[in-house]
Structures are given as C-alpha cells and as structure tokens.
Design brief:
Radius of gyration: 63 Å
Number of helices: 26
Strand content: 25-35%
Mean pLDDT: 84
Strand order of the largest sheet: 2-1-5-4-3
Number of strands: 25
Distance between the termini: 171 Å
Low-confidence stretches: 682-687
Oligomer: single chain
Structural class: alpha+beta
Length: 722
C-alpha cells in the first residue's frame, strides 16, 4: 500500500525538478569516485550538453569549464567532497557555440546507512545575467564615484533621517571636514563643524532647517565665507521614483568668477563708452546699462532700465527713423550694428553717438538681444565738420588763388590742376591725360632738357626751396614767363606752385628802360654840368690863381704879400671844392674803372678831408651794368652822407657781393642809430632814405634799413642784374 504514495511523491518531485530553470543532479559516491545517477533536462540549456552525455561520462562537466577557471573549480569541488557537507562553486563554462556563461553551483554530500558519504546532490544555476547585473551595478557605482570626484562642485546627499549617504572629495575640500566627522555620517555633526567658517552662520543654518522641513522644496543661494570665498549653494530633493528619500546639496566655489566679474564690471565702468545689453525695438527692455551713461548723457542706468522708451524718445527727431532702420537691419541679418545719430542729453545738449553692437539670437524664432557700446563722438563730429568747412575754404582758395597749382603723384603723373593753371596754360586735367605735357609746354627739346634738370634740382638738388623761372608755351601759342616752386611730400608726391609773371617782367623791362633813360638823362646832365665846370669854372679859377701867384712875384716882399697869399689860398680852396663837386656829379672812374674803384676813391677823399673811417669789401665777380653802377653808387653816396651828418666819427663797412642773379650792397655803421620801427618814411635829417628806396625798387630790387638806439644802422639793397 505504501509504495503507491511514494511513487506519486517521486513523480511529483521529478516534475518539480524538471520545471525549474536550474540543473539538478544526483551522483553516487563509491570510494571517492563520482558516478552520475540523475541529471535534469536543463543540462542542455545551461551547459549545452545532453542528459546522455552527462550520464555516460562523469568527466563531461570538467571539459565544459572555462580553461581559466577549470583548475580552481575542480580543486574547490574536490575540497567540497572531502568536507562531507555542503559547498558552493562559481565558475564559467563554455558552450559548444562559444558562448560563455557564469555558473553558481551549490551541492551537499549525503551519508549512507553506514554513515559514509554515499550521494552528492547539487543544483547548477545560470548566473550570467546576475553577474552582468552586478558588473553593471559596479560599473555604475564606479562611474558615479568618478563623476562625483571629478566635478568641481562639492556634493552631499543626506537621507531623511539626517544620515550622510554620499559625498565627494570636493565637498570635503571646500568645507575642510576632518575624517573623524565624516566617519560618523552624521549631518548634524558636519553642520556644527562648518558654521564657524561662514560670515552669516545663522542665515545658513536657518535655510538648512527650512529645507529639511519642506522636503519637496528646491533652493539656490550664495554663501560668503569669512576668508573671502564665495559659494553658490543648490539644493533639491532626492527621489526614488515619486518618493522623496533625502536631499542633495551642491556647493560651487565661485570666488574667482565673482572676482573676475567684479574686475570686468570695473573695467566696463572705466570704458569711455556706454556698455549696454538691450532687446531690440523702440520700447523694448534694457537689461544692462553701464554707469558711464550718466556722465555722457545725464541718465543713470536705473533711469534707462526703468523707462524702456527713453532711448527712442531722446534720439534727435531727424535721426530717429534712420536709427531704427539701422537697428532693424542688424537684427534681421543677425550681424553688426554701426549707427551714428544725435541724442538729446538730460540737460538738453545734443550729443553725437556712435552705436556699435551685435545682435545675439536667443532662440530659433529670431528673438535675441543687442549687445554693444555707445561712444560720444561729438568732438569728432565737430572736428569733421570743421575739417569739411576747412576743405571747402581751401578748395575755394585753391580754385581762386592767382597762382597755378599742379599735383604729381609719386609716379610723376598729374592728378590735379586748379582753375588758374587751366586758364593760364589752356589745358584741363582731362585733356592732359595721355599727353606728353612737357613737350606741349616746352616745344624746344634743348630747353625742355634744361627745364627737367632744373626741376630735378628743385626737388632733390641744390635748388630745393627756391623759385625758378621758366618760359612756357600755352595751348594757344602764347609764351608765358612763369616762376615755379616745388614742394615734395614724404610719400614721393609733389606740388608745383607757379605764377604767371609775364606782365610783371614786361613792367620790369619798361621800368628798367625808364630807369635807364632817367639815369642816362641824369648822368648826361651831370656829365654836361661837370664838363662845364671843368672847362669853364675850374679853368677860370685856375687862371686867377696863377695870376695872383705871378702878381705876388712881381711885387716882391712887402705888406701886401700876406693879403695876396690868403687870396691865393681861397682860390685854391674853391678849386678843390669845385673838383669835389665835379667828382660827386659824375666821377669819370665810374665809367672807366667801375663801381668798387670809384667808391674807394670817394672813401679816400672823405678820409683826407674829414678823417672819415670807412672800409670797402669788394666780392663782386662781374661789374654791374652802367645804369645799375651809377644807381648803386648814388645809394652808397647818400648813405655815407647820412653817416657823416648823424654819426660823425663812426666806423663804416661797405660790402659789395653777388646775390640771386643780382647785386647786393650793405652799408653798416656803429653810430648811435635811431628807432627804425617807428619810421615810415625818412626821419628828420634822413631824407635820403626815400630816394634810396625809390632807386632800388625802380630797378626791380628791394631796400631795407635796420637800426636801433645804441646799435648803429645797417642799410641793405639788392637789384637784379637783368
């Protein structure tokens, strides 16, 4: 009767064993040998072998063990058998298809009737998924730990009971918490340690308690340390699913950032411009305006931000529409903004603003902000306007000045001529393009070569800074006499300045002809008078003197001799004065020997007659023409007359020398002098100054006097040779 229930129980056990996912096996033990008695069908799915392979080969199990685990697994198995109790193994197996699986094996050694080990009953479970899950969990934990330790933020996680669950190294560094407190894992202990480091510990602790009392709350605040550090504190609830299980604290040291921001703000505040961040549009908000706005425009940053329409309203009405168009263009093209407009400052001043910025798009819908600088360019604008007016005035001068102007670029091409140039020579700038202008202006090749040499000398040689005279042929064939000055610039360009002196030269020629005629007439008259004096008066007086001398000899010695002697002396003195007058009227040496010899004779006469002290320096290379010779002699003569009258006893120096294709004369004395700055014409007693000036200027030259009380007088004149 009892066999049927046992059979049913065995069948039920077998069914149960064969339904589970693990391998169940039973082996018999005979003198240490293991003989398979039973293995469940799961041996195929777990180990990749059939029940028959397992049952027929007791060592089949050993062959599927992973080569790296085989030795240790067999050793552990044999130790388990020797222990005569339960044991467990973990090893890898290799399936026939190459797949590697982890096996957890648990077995128990059962004793038989005699108490000796008789059976081995075990279970093998495929632990691959569990192993992979453990590895993933370990990998995740490692990654989390590495992430927490690599972040620059300090992280602290506290559960609802005040136990510290997680913290990273940065948290420990920031708060300098000793290891003994960390080992306690007690949030209260950690709080007690950090409070003394804070500038406001009460506010810090109050916020902590507030958040712990409201688990779902989130928070952000800034902590200031006594040592100057600044931390940003973030706090959010820790959740597992929908359940709040604790609180996460994050601490970020922003000391350097705050310091940099402070320095940057200080730098922005020192910029000579208004720094701004604003949304585009006439009444759009202003997010930031630097304090310089008050200095430049009179409005504080607070006024700008509080009144979004202030900027648009204060733009000059004439510039408002254009400024808005330029802003809109920058926002549509997402590019740079460059705009200049007038702005009405708070005190009513009109300020020119140069607005330079860029549009930064925030979102795909095109919205964004303008970030830029507003400069006060009023001074530059005024300077530019003044420069424009100056250019207009200069252009008016250039176009109306009675002088020819021509500008050459560094390559020698004509790039500008003024109206006087075109009127005088008949060539416009456009007409000169592509032409050999020099060939047109100087048709004679030889003369043209000489002109080019002169121009080169004006630019680079010994004629730099001088005016030179040229004969130019105008477009209509007229020949012009012109004087030109060349001014060079650093870049190699040149400006030619010329003036038409044709009429001036004709007038000079006429003046010279008139002078020559007048001088010739004067000198002819002087010569005639001198001849008459020499032929008549001097001869008659000489005859009288000879007769008186003869009469004295005839009468012999007596009281009448003294009377005759005095009479003879008077006649001789009269003859001498007549001879001096004859020399002053027209010295023959002026025609026969020249200017310098004549002046030496004149100085010698003055030295004999008046003890006059004069010295002549003759540096002339060529003798002046006859009409100039007489004119220069008269100027020196009149200057010496003034010295004899107003500075008797003074030392006099006379210099004759060539200068600028003409003749230069200087008469200098060391007498008492006079105040020349107050003298318009000849001072009293100096009537010769006017006549001397007239003589020099009539010859096309110049005349000047330099004198001062106590420093003598210098008379200078120059006359051209031709």
């Amino acid at each position: 009767m009892s066999s049927k229930p046992e059979a049913e129980t065995g069948a039920l056990y077998r069914t149960l064993v064969e339904q589970i996912s693990a391998i169940t096996y039973v082996d018999t033990l005979h003198d240490g040998a293991v003989v398979p008695l039973y293995v469940s069908p799961q041996v195929g799915s777990v180990l990749g072998m059939s029940q028959q392979e397992w049952m027929s080969d007791p060592k089949a199990w050993r062959r599927v063990i992973h080569p790296e685990d085989r030795e240790s697994a067999i050793a552990d198995f044999e130790r388990g058998l020797a222990g005569a109790g339960s044991f467990s193994l973990t090893y890898r197996v290799v399936h026939p298809d190459g797949r590697v699986a982890w096996i957890d094996e648990r077995a128990v050694v059962l004793a038989g009737e005699q108490g000796r080990p008789s059976f081995l009953h075990g279970v093998m479970t495929d632990a691959t998924e569990a192993r992979e899950a453990e590895r993933e969990a370990a990998r995740g934990a490692s990654l989390l730990s590495a992430t927490l330790d690599s972040t620059t933020d300090g992280i602290l996680v506290v559960d609802l009971g005040g136990k510290i669950e997680v913290f990273n190294r940065r948290f420990v560094q920031i708060w300098s918490i000793p290891q003994q407190i960390l080992d306690l894992r007690d949030d209260e202990a950690a709080l007690g340690h950090v409070l003394d480091q804070l500038a406001d510990p009460e506010a810090f602790l109050s916020k902590v308690k507030e958040l712990y009392s409201v688990p779902e709350a989130e928070s952000f605040d800034v902590l200031h340390f006594k040592d100057g550090r600044v931390l940003e504190r973030y706090s959010i609830p820790q959740r597992i699913g929908d359940e709040i299980v604790g609180r996460v604290w994050s601490f970020r040291d922003v000391s350097d950032q705050r310091r940099t921001e402070s320095e940057y703000r200080s730098l922005v505040d020192r910029l000579p411009a208004i720094v701004y961040i604003a949304e585009p549009g006439a009444g759009a908000p202003w997010r930031y305006v630097s304090p310089r706005s008050e200095e430049i425009l009179g409005f504080t940053p607070q006024e700008w931000i509080a009144d979004p329409e202030l900027w648009y309203r204060q733009i000059h009405p004439e510039d408002r529409e254009r400024a808005m168009r330029e802003e809109l263009s920058a926002t549509e093209e997402v590019g740079a903004l460059v705009s200049e407009y007038r702005f009405i400052a708070k005190d009513g001043r009109t300020v020119w603003i140069r607005d330079e910025g860029e549009f930064l798009a925030d979102r795909s819908d095109g919205s964004g902000v303008l970030r830029g600088l507003m400069y006060d360019v009023t001074a530059e604008r005024l300077a530019a306007e003044e420069l424009r007016q100056e250019r207009e005035r200069l252009a008016a001068v250039v176009e109306n000045i009675p002088a020819m102007l021509v500008f050459f670029d560094p390559g020698g091409s004509v790039v500008f001529t003024n109206r006087e140039y075109e009127v005088s020579l008949g060539w416009s700038l456009q007409e000169m393009q592509g032409r050999d202008v020099l060939a047109e202006l100087y048709p004679d090749a030889g003369y043209r070569t000489a002109v080019l040499k002169t121009i080169q000398a004006q630019r680079y040689g010994d004629l730099v800074g001088t005016w030179q005279e040229f004969r130019m042929t105008a477009r209509d064939g007229r020949v012009l006499v012109s004087e030109w000055f060349d001014h060079g610039f650093a870049d190699g360009s040149h400006l030619g300045i010329g003036r038409d002196v044709t009429q001036e030269r004709l007038a000079q020629d006429e003046r010279r002809q008139l002078l020559a005629h007048i001088v010739s007439a004067q000198e002819d008259e002087r010569r005639r008078i001198a001849g008459d004096i020499h032929d008549d008066s001097i001869q008659a007086m000489t005859a009288v003197e000879l007769r008186i001398a003869a009469l004295a000899r005839e009468l012999g010695e007596g009281p009448h001799n003294e009377t005759l002697r005095r009479t003879q002396q008077s006649v001789q003195s009269a003859i001498t004065r007549l001879r001096h007058l004859l020399f002053q009227l027209r010295p023959r040496t002026l025609d026969e020997e020249g200017l310098a010899p004549t002046l030496r004779i004149y100085l010698d006469q003055l030295a004999r007659d008046e003890d006059f002290k004069g010295r002549l320096e003759d540096r002339l290379v060529t003798e002046p023409p006859q009409e100039l010779r007489a004119m220069l002699y008269r100027i020196v003569q009149e200057a010496l007359t003034n010295v004899r009258k107003h500075a008797p006893g003074a030392q006099v120096q006379i210099v004759l020398e060539p200068m600028d294709r003409g003749f230069f004369v200087r008469i200098k004395d060391d007498g008492p002098g006079f105040d020349a700055s107050t003298v318009q014409e000849s001072p009293i007693g100096h009537m010769g100054l006017s006549s001397m000036r007239e003589r020099a200027e009539m010859a096309g030259g110049w005349f000047r006097v330099d004198s001062g009380l106590g420093r003598g007088t210098t008379v200078e004149c120059w006359v051209p040779e031709a």
